[in-house]
Design brief:
Number of strands: 7
CATH superfamily: Vaccinia Virus protein VP39
Mean pLDDT: 92
Largest sheet: 7 strands, mixed
Number of helices: 6
Structural class: alpha/beta
Shape: globular
Distance between the termini: 43 Å
CATH topology: Rossmann fold
CATH architecture: 3-Layer(aba) Sandwich
């Protein structure tokens, strides 16, 4: 079973990125010259494999996953893809794991991909800023949500999380960003592409 198809064995079937978005993320990684990637949300490891291949044999990917069952599926896929040696899968609360990376003063990441629980997007944005340096790329997935993100009165915590993160990005002078809409096998959605321009 391929990495994307194995997503049915995770706690969120069919939530992995589309193939064309995986290719885009890999190309973006290469364009940015990223060698250290941090991923919030692993699931079956489909996007992780794209990143691991893009950083090359001298690169590294750290991916954060809440569910141990999902992590096991991902590890199997990473081994099958031949990139397990350049990936570290950390299991637990993404916000707590990110804080542990901050506390450990790890080497800054060149690219951060946020594709985890949307209500915590503002927390993940703060962590991403603390774990990167100027020039780093930060990507947030699922920010359009079939247009629901335009509803300021929405009580959906996922929509609120996305909107709050967007507001913070817009108000942060150290970030330049744009939002791009996508239409494909996962319907109508989109992502935010941001770049750090100066120290935080």
């Amino acid at each position: 079973m391929g990495a994307r198809e194995s997503g049915v064995a995770t706690s969120m079937p069919n939530a992995e990125v589309a193939p064309n978005q995986g290719a885009f993320l890999a190309l973006l990684t290469q364009i940015a010259g990223a060698k250290r990637v941090l991923e919030f949300g692993t699931l079956a490891g489909y996007s992780t494999i794209w990143f691991a291949r893009a950083v090359g044999t001298d690169g590294h990917v750290t991916t954060l996953e809440l569910d141990e069952g999902n992590a096991e599926v991902a590890r199997t896929n990473l081994e099958r893809a031949g990139v397990a040696s350049r990936v570290k899968v950390l299991v637990g609360s993404a916000s707590e794991l990110a804080q542990s990376l901050i506390d450990a003063d790890v080497e800054p990441f060149d690219l951060v991909f946020v594709d985890a629980d949307k209500p915590n997007n503002p927390v993940y944005l703060d962590a991403a800023m603390k774990l990167t340096r100027p020039g780093a790329v930060i990507v947030f997935d699922n920010v359009v949500r079939d247009g629901k993100v335009t509803d300021s009165a929405s009580e959906d915590l996922r929509v609120q999380g996305v909107r709050t993160a967007i507001d913070i990005i817009a108000a942060t002078p150290d970030l330049e960003a744009t939002a791009l809409q996508t239409v494909g096998v996962k319907g109508w959605d989109g992502f935010i592409l941001a770049r750090r321009t100066s120290s935080f």
